[in-house]
């Protein structure tokens, strides 16, 4: 009997194994495993795509406007590096910024007009690295804007604390706001200041108060690619540095006939002078804050608007003359009126001084030194010479395209 039961159990055990195998196969989803011998083959995995880089302006684009941004984007990955460079010797590399996810890069600043640019970009992603290159050309402007003159711009020159920065352009500027943004003044001892447009070609910068003495001031004009008007762009950048020396400030009192010169607040010279005799407005010395502009020795002075033989005509050659306005006023040597200096006003409007003292002043002169004149009833016009300090800073800054 025992042997019979054992024979009966054996088939049941085999049946259980077979059933379990069938159940397992039914839950597998029907996908044949490796080496199953199925004629259909196995389903392959989808490969991860490479990053895709797009560049604007499009490849081969021409007449691209200089104010247009270069934009590089990447999908399926992140940008590792973007380089935009003008071709040719010394081609400038354009600066730019990535977004937070490094999927976008945008250039900063304008492009150089009439130039060829190359763009190269590299990105990486799960699918691997990718690169892209492109090139384009910027337009040649119908009108080119340059700077014709910057004052002061004499190498090694030291200027006074009242010195303005004067910029004259080669073309009338229509978009003054954009151009003014491109003009920058940085000082070692910063003070508030503003530009004022005198006309469409001429802009002047002055601080709210005199410059602090003994420092360097840097002026830059990042004009390249900046739009100045219809079909007009800046084509060159400019930079210059001026050195402000000691604070030379002279005070002239036409009533006491005295001129006191101070250097950094300390009196260094007292001069007996004779000012304009004031018989006419023309012969009246102007009141207010003047700046020294230029010097000459000798200088020939001729009565304005008169010819030889006319009443009041004069022609005099003077030594050691320092100009302080455009209406003919100088501080100069006058040996013929030494007897009146310190006592009476007998000049045609100039500040006359003793020859030795006029020579001393001439030799210590800097452009932009301050000469304050008091005691007359004729005010210096703000646009007479460099009379810009005659205007309050509140009024001055109203002439800025950026409203100060």
From TrEMBL:
The active site is at 332 (proton donor/acceptor), 350 (nucleophile). Gene3D superfamilies: 2.60.40.3710, 2.60.40.3780, L,D-transpeptidase catalytic domain-like. This is Lipoprotein-anchoring transpeptidase ErfK/SrfK. PROSITE patterns: LD_TPASE, PROKAR_LIPOPROTEIN. Residues 1-25 form the signal peptide. One of its GO terms (molecular function) is acyltransferase activity. Keywords: Acyltransferase, Cell shape, Cell wall biogenesis/degradation, Lipoprotein, Peptidoglycan synthesis, Signal, Transferase. Pathway: Cell wall biogenesis; peptidoglycan biosynthesis. Residues 29-52 are annotated as: Disordered. One of its GO terms (cellular component) is extracellular region. One of its GO terms (biological process) is peptidoglycan-protein cross-linking. It comes from Sphaerisporangium siamense.
